[in-house]
Amino acid sequence: MVRATAVAVAAMLAGCAQQAGDGTEPGSSAPEANEESITVVSYGGSYARACVLGYHESFTAETGIQVNLEDFNGGLAQIRAQVEAGAVHWDVVDLGVADTVTGCDEGVLELIGPELLPPGPNGEAPADDFLPETNTECGVGTLLYSTIYAYNPETLPGPAPTALADFFDLERFPGRRGMQRKPEANLEFALMADGVPKERIYELLGTPEGLDRAFRKLDTIKDEVVWWEAGAQPPQLLADGEVIMSTAWNGRIFNAQVLEDQPFVIVWDGQIMDRGQLVVVAGTPHLEGALRFMRHAARSESMAGVGKYIAYSPARRSGQALIDRHAETGVDMWPHMPTNPANMKNFLMADWEWWADHRDEMQERFAAWLAR
Amino acid sequence: MTSQGSPSVSQPPARPLWRRALGPRLRAAGLALPLVAFVSVTFLGPMLSLLTKSFYDPEVADALPETMAALRDWDGQGTPSDEAFAAVAREFVAARQERTLGRTANRVNRVVSGMRSTIMGGSREMVDAAAAAEAAGVEMDGAFWRETMIGIDSRWGEPEHWRALQAAGQRLTARHYLKALDFERGPDGGYQRAPEVWRIYVPLFWRTFLVSLGVTLLCLVIGYPVAHMIANSPPKRANVLLLLVLLPFWTSLLVRTTSWIVLLQNQGIVNDFLVAIGLIGDDGRIAMIYNMTGTFVAMTHVLLPFLVLPLYSVMRAIPPAHMNAAVSLGATPFQALRRVYWPQTLPGVGAGCLLTFILAIGYYITPALVGGQSGQLISNMIAYHVQTSLNWGLAAALAALLLGGVTLLYVVYDRLVGIDRIGLG
Question: What is the mean pLDDT of each run of 10 residues along chain B (425 residues)?
Fold first, then answer.
């Protein structure tokens, strides 16, 4: 009883915060439990649009199941609260791997058996077709993206930054910088910019000295950082001239480049590549519809469909082979893809295992550092 | 009351007064029952259950009963007994198959980072090892598991990680409070103050206290003349002025806070105006929001009515004749104000300040919206742990400390000033 009450209270609080955060009315976007509709939660903006155009629409056309799209900023909190309170109203969620693994261990996500994964367009077996480490017990890999940094040449005259270290160089590139308000990626950037070889980044971050070193590096630019939270913010900050350069998800910058004719330039050096996955929330009342959606999303064509609208690479080899031109502008997509070898000369693969282990601690340290 | 004055002594003694009054009292109390029930269900119950979480955490203990029993007598030095190894292995393997081990692993991970993968990754290999041993007919006793587990992950050979498991398994625990006071586990297993870069909550408590104090004083300095003016205006003008105070009071908190964003932001009205009149250059726009300034301005504005209203009602009851009398007896206006007027408004000052301060100390939405990084208060951290990290034990401990602090202030105020001196008019 005591526990149930506390859970209900926290769920309520979480609900309120979500309301305050994104200004949506509770339930406004989710029609009453209807067999013919599922709620899919993703990161909004141009990425969500790419998913709708890329495969949500074909899913609805094929199955008759409506997709209600909700936005969030990542993390397991709302999923946990929904599962613990026994009021699951999210069905499919777009998550990072560290969250998928943690949530799977905790039992708040449905296990996804390999039998769910469809073969490739030419009958490729999923086991070989998915890129390594893109699937986990509960998560189906859909794409690869990179956290890069980009600059706006209009507000940054003079020599152009070309390396990750330039992001931390206030002398040659004075001005404000945008960074995501979380420790993920920023700690890795700091150590890489400080000259640590990328094979040693996570090993070093696990030691008190290495961690201090990362924060010392961040200290050097802290006063000039504007912190962003939603993926749509960095292009806006760059366009408004609020910052001269910003870390961002590569697809968001790409969209600003091709759809809004922004002159932004991505610096493909020291970027952090990560995998995006879809999961099904445990105990969803629409399990069958959610699994059909997962099966649809796991097709190479669906992944390539997203890749027609935003520069995120399919998680399947056969999907990568389908990468073609931007559906609206005809821009060749391949040069913009994070998996294009030309863009992968110096990149770091995010270590989800390390982050699953250390995230709580890093967030505390990061919060303490920010508040100082 | 006894039956005094009654001539008859054989009459049975009348029921004592408290008993006779019981009926009507109970009926009167009955009227308050809906309120009591409402408060218990919506406030006291949830609050107590949440506060309980700050020191009571049965999750790991319930998930690993045999392990905790085997570790009960372990002194924290070296490695525990073979039985403990065997118990851990048995329970990990079982919990893993039921998909409940992740929750346990995450709890233990909060005590020592990295325990999540030690437990989850280790247990995966322990399942395989158990299957292999069974196939080979090897007896899986404590010694077998000791060797296997340390082979899988050398951390099982280090006392630190066993102590983490032991600590996470304690039902009654002070660790949330210690964390909330910026203490950490030392290498010897005891608690010590965390290194400075890890300290977060104590500085935030201080900041919350100082901001609340500052906002209260600012409200007092701004609100006192306002209240005085309203109280001493002719009724018609007083009504209009009162409306001006109340109007923002009736407006949604979010609307008022976001209006400040419109006014104060970098490209906002105030900065535009300052640039337009040439006081500052276009590149010299002042950062007035998303920092401490923003928190101060918005909180003072939002809380001002809470100070003006009690002050106003107390001031209205002070006859203007008092000031006139003081001045006619030779006091300067300042002396009259200080020695005659001010002391009479103290109940209102006390009530208003206490109200404002207590509201300020728990403020959450306003700092979250306009505080940026440097303007965050302890409530924002509590919200973070309730909503995002889901470390409700720590959130509850922080909330309990805040509640304790406010209660302490109230008691001190009562001792120094006397709570009965508070007047709302």
Answer: 47 66 79 89 89 92 92 87 91 87 88 86 87 88 91 89 90 91 78 84 92 96 95 92 87 86 86 90 82 90 92 91 90 90 91 91 87 83 84 92 90 77 58
Number of domains in chain B: 2
Tokens of A15: 């609900």
Radius of gyration of chain A, Cα coordinates, nearest whole angstrom: 20
Question: What is the residue-wise DSSP string for A251-319?
Answer: HHHHHHHHHS----EEEEEEEEEEEEEEEEBTT-TTHHHHHHHHHHHTSHHHHHHHTTTSS-EESBHHH
First to last CA, chain B: 37
**pLDDT tens, residue by residue, A176-227:** 899 998 999 999 999 999 999 999 999 999 998 999 999 999 999 998 998 8
Assess if residue B131 is contained within a domain.
yes
The predicted-structure confidence for A81-123, as pLDDT tens digits, reads as follows 899 888 999 999 999 999 999 899 888 999 999 899 999 999 9
Phi then psi for residue A324, to 5 deg, are -135, -120
Interior CA angle at A21 toward A255 and B110, to 5°? 100
Q: Which residue has the tokens 């920010």?
A: A370
Q: How confident is the model at residue A364 (pLDDT cuts 50, 70, 90)?
A: confident
DSSP 3-state of A226: strand
Beta carbons of A329 and A259 less than 8 angstroms apart:
yes
Q: In this complex, is the C-beta atom of A19 within 8 Å of any C-beta atom belonging to chain B?
A: no
CB atoms within 10 A of CB A260: 11
Rounded Cα distance between B87 and B125, Å, is 16
Structure tokens at B262: 């419109």
Q: For the whole model, what pTM was predicted? A: 0.78
Strands A265-280 and A347-349, by their bridges, are parallel
Question: CB distance from A175 to chain B under 8 Å?
Answer: no
Residues of A in contact with B193 (CB under 8 A): none
CB < 8 Å to B109, chain A: 357, 360
The answer to whether A366 contacts chain B (CB < 8 Å) is no
Q: B45 to chain A: which residues are within 8 Å by CB? A: 5
d(C-alpha A136, C-alpha A278), whole Å: 10
Same-domain pairing of B67 and B159: yes
Q: Are residues B148 and B208 in the same domain?
A: no
Residue B209 forms part of a structural domain: yes
Tokens matching residue B175: 């660790």
What is the Cα–Cα distance from A79 to A276, expressed in whole angstroms? 17
Tell the CATH topology of A146-273+347-371.
D-Maltodextrin-Binding Protein; domain 2 (3.40.190)
Asked: is A35-144+275-335 a CATH 3.40.630.30 domain? The reply is: no
Q: Which residue range forms the structural domain that includes residue B206?
A: 201-229+295-421
Residues B21-55 pLDDT 10s = 677 778 888 888 899 899 889 889 988 988 999 99
Same domain membership, residue B207 and residue B148: no
Residue type, B162: W
Dist. CA B138–CA B132, nearest whole Å: 9
Q: Does A10 touch chain B (CB under 8 A)?
A: yes
Residue B62 CB neighbour total at 10 angstroms: 12
Residue type, A160: A
